[in-house]
Amino acid sequence: MGKSLLSELTHRSYSKTKNPDGTRTPQLRVGIEARIDYHPFLDDWGDRYQSIMRTALNALLQGQSEDNIEKSFQSRFDIDWAWADSIATDAKGIFDSLIEARALKIKALNDDLVAGWKSVATTIELMSQQLANPTRKNMKGFAKRLMGTKSKFNRLERKQVEKNELEQATRLHICFGGAKLFNAQYHLEENGYSSHNEWRVDWEKKRGGNFYSVGKGSVLGNNPVAKIFYIDDDIFSVTFTVPRYLRGDYGDTVSVEFEVTGQRKHNLLYALESDKPVTVQCFRREHKNDQWYIHLTTYVQDVPTISSRNNGCIGIDLNAETIDVIYIKRDGNPERCRNALSFPIPTGTTGTKVARLRDIVCEIVKLAEFYQCPIACENLDFSTKKNQLRHSVSKEYNRMLTGFIYDKFRSYLVVRAEKYGIEILFKSPFMTSVIGMVKYMAKYGLNSASSAAMVIARRAMGFKEFIPQKWLKTLSSFFEPEDSKDGGFAGGWRRISAWLKTFCIRRPQLFQLDTVLRFLLDSLVTQSQKKTHKRRKPGGSSKSGGKRTGRAKPTEGQVPLEREEVVVTNIGAVTVAP
């Protein structure tokens, strides 16, 4: 059974060491990043570390264990145990990611193939019907559509071959440094290189400049080989234990200072004083003049939860164009003194979208902090739909799925809410739009998105959304018995949703529910009458050679039945036999 969405996004955990009473202390994982002063040791060890890590990854691909790599690499590369442990851990993380990426790639190809072949079959059937009945309208652009179908057919065949090769492959593949830069060596002049040696300098630089050390709270400096110390004011230092093979050049240790301010400083000081492990990663940023940065991952005290469902709930509905938010009181009704909020989906560059998205999350969490209530959001998995985008026709929906906005929004929301003690609840989006439009859109004067957000908030507080009694009584003959029995919580809403789509009822029309209800009743009655009064085909069955054989004579002791009478009422069509 896979992890829940909240468990994948949360930064909450429990300490490994137990308290005297046997419990574990809840803690919150935080990240602290700062720029560090340059030292030549960073370049030398960063490049060498990545080379050793790639060797460790190859060893894992060949079947070696993580423990075996940790032990053998100490003497093989003349490095300390802690560095070998960090390299093995880093390689194992990449190895696990490659396995997961391969499974996701196979799933993506399979989803694409299933949707693609279905689309091709539908297109071929439609074109066959048009070819059988050639008219000017049917044959317009027929050759172009035929070529497009052939192109799609060839693409699906290539994807099928790619999927088969991926399933049969026994080795995982990854290109450190990027495939684009790797292919640039074959087109040097087009990519701005005068020689292969010039390209190789960039290639080696791209593949290096990064190293990692696993933290440990029981040692001095909270890390075995990258110890963190507080100096004064906002200044900290990191003292690296130089690997054995480099000690002739740099000595036993190398110390580099960095500055941390604000809340991050307090978090780091707490971690150092509380003996929390501090995992250190140093890396070079090429787009910032090759400056070196340090990223510290540690744990701080968990923020106590201040939100309660007794104070209501905030519901969030994610749409193709907006993020809609509404506050619901404990009784399940919206706050009348405050209108629902609607934020447009951020557009622009990646940095602009991320910045705007963080601002939206801050406003939502600030509202939840004011009411001291939890936040409810949709528990959606778009992975399968993303894989089938090529065969969809809705540009807005495709844009919504391909964007990273929704995954980022939920991750930012969880992290921000945990820092302020706000509980996040992920609930099923089952029929939220239909329920909101039928029950709450006209009642409270909301739009369809805000009414859906209201349903999500009510669902998080434990309310069940039954079908209104007026709808059940008026359309009783078209519901199943179980729908009327439980108030139509499950199958009844599916039927209403299908009817709204079948009879093309638009969302603004649902502000006049009585008119919509009468229209649905008339449409369903007309539809049922058409099904009841089926015209009899001329002639008899194929067995009788097309001749009518008349009514069969009853056998001895059998009472003949009279013709059934069809009685049509204002509710539906009922067949009665006298």
Topology:
Blueprint: H1 5-9, E1 12-18, E2 24-36, H2 40-61, H3 66-76, H4 81-132, H5 136-139, H6 142-168, H7 179-183, H8 196-207, E3 210-213, E4 226-232, E5 235-241, H9 247-250, E6 253-259, H10 262-273, E7 279-285, E8 291-301, E9 313-318, E10 322-328, E11 341-344, H11 350-371, E12 375-378, H12 383-387, H13 395-402, H14 405-419, E13 424-427, H15 432-444, H16 448-460, H17 469-474, H18 481-485, H19 491-502, H20 513-532, E14 565-568, E15 573-576
Parallel strand pairs: 9-12, 12-13
Antiparallel strand pairs: 1-2, 2-8, 3-7, 4-5, 5-6, 7-8, 9-10, 10-11, 14-15
Helix pairs in contact: 2-4, 3-4, 4-6, 11-14, 15-16
Structure description:
The chain has 578 residues and is α+β, with helices and mostly antiparallel strands. Among the domains are: 48-174; 309-463, Nucleotidyltransferase, domain 5; 466-531, no CATH class. It is 47% helix and 17% strand. The protein contains 20 helices and 15 strands. The strands form four sheets. The protein has a five-stranded antiparallel beta sheet with strand order 1-2-8-7-3. Strand 14 (565-568) and strand 15 form a beta hairpin. Helix 3 packs across helix 4 (81-132), helix 4 packs antiparallel against helix 6 and helix 15 (432-444) packs across helix 16. The chain is globular.
